Amino acid sequence: MPPALAELVKISIDGIKGTSPYILTGYALLSLYVLIQIFYIFVYVVAPTPREVLRSETSYKHIEDNGSISYAKPLPYWKNIFDQRKKSMREKGDVTDCNIGIEDAEVFMSLVVPAFNEENRLGIMLREAVGYLQKEYGPSASEAPANGSVRRRQKNAGEQSNGHARSGNAGGKAEPTGWEVLIISDGSKDKTVDTALEFARSIGTESTGLIRVVSLVENRGKGGAVTHGMRHVRGKYAIFADADGASRFEDLGKLVREVKKIEDQDGRGVAVGSRAHLVGSEEVVKRSFLRNLLMHSFHLLLWVLTPPATAAIRDTQCGFKLFSRSALPYIIPYMHSESWIFDVEMLMLAEAAAIPVAEVPIGWHEVQGSKLNVLWDSLGMAWGLFILRAAWATGIYRRT
Question: pTM of the prediction?
Answer without folding.
Answer: 0.84
